[in-house]
Amino acid sequence: MSLRFPAIKAQTSSLALVSPALMLLGLLFFYPILLLFFTTLEGENIGNYAKVVGNGTSMQVFFNTLRIAVIVTVVDLLLAYPLAIYISRLSPGAKALAFFLVLIPLWTSQLVRTYAWMVLLGRNGPINNALVWLGIIDAPIRLANSEFAVVAGMTHILLPYMLLPIYNSVSKIDNSLFDAARGLGAGAFSTFTRVLMPLSIQGVLAGVSLVLVLSLGVFIMPALLGGGRVPVIALLIEQQAGSFLNWAMAGTLSAVLMVIVMITFFIIKVATRMFVRGRIDVAST
């Protein structure tokens, strides 16, 4: 009993320290969400859920949003994984410089970065001019106001959210494990699949969940880089609330989006548990 009271006292003290932040979060974040959700269940508003599910256009927008989010997540993963490994092996000075370059996008307004991409992808922008100069194309092509522009902009802006969790996992791996794997005859592929990937999988899944969830709700880049031609759920919600003043439908779409986000988190959590359990079973045998 004497050992339990200090633990309970410590938990109570910790709860008291975080309670102001929890109350502020509940007042400014959870309360508006709950209010919006209950509004969609009042009276005839509940019928909007059937309209959303039964409307082929709305469901197509949801699938298009999820498809773009998956593409951005996969591209960010392919870019961030080798970059995290490379940074983890740099000297302290070079590592600080690399992190400075990686974190620069987070210090700049998302709107400014989006306009920068609009300049780069314009008909007379640097990318089109370079392609014409290299002889790859004969005349400037339309890069802006397209899905390619949206994916490129989202990939660039969300890359740090993928890189940092993966780097955190990779940097904690003891380099002697790689030497031991090579000493036992493992090649580069076997070392990656049997040493590096299992030990960094939690960072990978954390980065994937962050980028995937953030991609589902992005508004500025599809609106500006897509020019309204790339339908995503954030644009549909803004249209219902801003143009049609249909707050009930906008709330319904937001609620459906939150359900998709929660399902995504659940799937990633289950995948993490299954992978960890599988690694424990393999190690025990």
Automatic annotation (TrEMBL):
Listed InterPro entries: MetI-like, MetI-like_sf
Chain segments annotated as transmembrane: 21-41, 61-84, 96-116, 148-167, 204-224, 244-268
Origin species: Aminobacter aminovorans (Chelatobacter heintzii)
Residue ranges constituting the ABC transmembrane type-1 domain according to the UniProt record: 62-268
Entry's family note: Belongs to the binding-protein-dependent transport system permease family. CysTW subfamily.
A single BP term in Gene Ontology: transmembrane transport
Tree of life domain: Bacteria
Pfam families tied to this protein: BPD_transp_1
Gene3D superfamilies attached to this UniProt entry: MetI-like
Position of the signal peptide: none
UniProt main location, coarse: membrane
Subcellular location: Cell membrane
Cellular component terms (Gene Ontology): plasma membrane
Keywords per UniProt: Cell membrane, Membrane, Plasmid, Transmembrane, Transmembrane helix, Transport
Membrane topology: Multi-pass membrane protein
Protein name listed in UniProt: Binding-protein-dependent transport systems inner membrane component
